[in-house]
Design brief:
Elements: H1 5-27, H2 39-58, H3 62-84, H4 93-119
Helix pairs in contact: 1-2, 2-3, 2-4, 3-4
Length: 120
């Protein structure tokens, strides 16, 4: 897959914006959708899957993909750890698991997507 430089630039901007939104939501005062249906776990999964998907797609060098994904995993741990020290938030092992499963799913889906695009 050969993305031109301009398209890569836009994908980088989109990725950085998604990342900033994800971190911003992680450190804002506690908010959870009403009800006890664990929708927050679904949102953690979707957010981390989205930011894990893009590096696989737009980086050619595997080293860049590995470092990007390692940074995302570090961020998953760091944001949950930081919430332990916030008076209005609580760290959650379930959220961390949802984050990590989201990272794994995003990477897996991106590699499948990349293989399909290369075939066509």
């Amino acid at each position: 897959m050969n993305l031109n430089i301009k398209r890569r630039k836009y994908l980088n901007i989109i990725w950085l914006l998604l990342f900033a939104v994800l971190i911003g939501l992680s450190v804002q005062p506690y908010y959870t959708p009403s009800g006890n249906n664990h929708i927050d776990k679904v949102l953690h999964f979707i957010g981390y899957a989205a930011i894990s998907f893009l590096p696989v797609i737009f980086f050619k060098a595997r080293r860049k993909v590995y470092w990007s994904e390692a940074f995302i995993i570090f961020t998953a741990f760091a944001t949950e750890g930081a919430q332990h020290f916030m008076p209005t938030r609580t760290a959650s092992f379930g959220d961390l698991v949802a984050n990590l499963i989201g990272v794994t799913a995003g990477i897996f889906i991106a590699y499948i997507f990349k293989k399909i695009l290369i075939r066509t």
